[in-house]
Amino acid sequence: MDPYNTKLTLIAKIRDKHNDQAWEEFTYFYKSYIYSIVIKMGVISSERDDLVQKIMLELWKCLPSFEYQPGEGVFRRWLYGVVRNQTYVFFRTNKRYKNKLEKAGKLADTNDNYESEQEVQHEKEWREHLFEIAWDRIKDDLPDNYRECFSLFGQGLDVHQVAEELNIKVNSAHVFRQRVTKRLAREIRFLDSELG
After folding, report:
1. pLDDT tens digits for 11-50?
2. Under CATH, which number does the domain 1-110 receive?
3. Please, are residues 166 and 153 in contact by the beta-carbon 8 Å criterion?
4. Going by C-beta distance under 8 Å and a sequence separation of 6 or more, which residues neighbour residue 196?
5. What are the residue ranges of CATH 1.10.1740.10 in the chain?
6. How far is CA 74 from CA 9, 46, 81, 158, in A?
């Protein structure tokens, strides 16, 4: 997989339904994001795989005709809309989700802030998704002590606990975390510009 493949290039490649490598790249970058949306919408775990597979099939069908126009919006909003709409179709065909469908309808009818709340939630899910991909892409290139240090901070340990746990100086713990954070931030910015 080419880590510097732009979204425009990837979308152009996906237009050819027989380009398996492009589809693999698309799946790598977006499938876990689709799962996160489906989970947040309340689909039970035993039905998620089937629904995500149906959504991926729908994307496979409609991506060849997708026209990306820079400046007219971001790809992830279009993707989010497709996933949300396909999930609502799934809800309509399954009686057990009747309450979720009714609740979403009432919120949309009675809450002027419904769309902005959805946008905030969508943005939060996207940021979490980018963090996971970015971490996956950089972690193997980091020295072991950097990874361990960052992981311990992520578990909520303070700098003194991290330094003690790794048998390093407090200043070193700060430096390791800062270097990983900078690298991660750079990767997240790159991914957001390429995938967003």
Report:
1. 667 766 677 888 888 888 889 999 988 988 888 889 999 9
2. 1.10.1740.10
3. no
4. 7, 74, 75, 76, 126
5. 1-110
6. 15, 31, 11, 38
